[in-house]
Specification:
Elements: E1 4-8, E2 13-14, H1 15-27, E3 31-35, E4 44-51, E5 59-67, E6 82-85, H2 90-94, H3 98-109, E7 114-117, H4 121-126, E8 134-135, H5 142-147, E9 151-152, E10 161-163, E11 166-169, H6 175-186
Parallel strand pairs: 1-3, 1-6, 2-4, 6-7, 7-11, 8-9
Antiparallel strand pairs: 4-5, 10-11
Amino acid sequence: MAKKILLLAGDFTEDYETMVPFQTLLAVGYAVDAVCPGKKAGETVRTAVHDFEGEQTYSEKRGHNFALTADFDSVQPDDYAGLVLPGGRAPEYLRLDKDVLAIVKHFFTQNKPVAAVCHGPQILVAADVVRGRSLTAYPAVGPEIKAAGGNFVELAPDQAHTDGNLVTSPAWPGHPAWLSGFFQILGASITL
């Protein structure tokens, strides 16, 4: 039986930061339950594409509809080997959901692998799991991490940072480093 990964998404989750890890984890043999509070398997969340086009911040465009693969209400955190927190707009409101925060806290109390990218660490801040940890995120999230007692690591967008069971990246250009780090903390090995 394949190890299961939980991916927490919501409307206007970042397109690449949701689809790429979802498809990559499936491609290497993991089962991935993509869930959203208030939604069931087969329903969709809308995504947003954040791009870096030379302005002072990212641009935002409508992305795809992303199909959820499991019911949020049936999530049992003990069933999962790891957790993925994509960025985008969704973390802004997912961090207000007490059940989301309880799930995130479970992964940290059990020292299970967690991968968060871009604005995904906003959920970690709200779950009060960053104190004393070093992590990165989209630069605009840095002040939140610092205020919550975390050590914000400034990195180029194509890099990732690992601290114990947590791997983070500033944005989707970091997917190769971020997913490689996630595979390492999951204990996975991919051979060619």
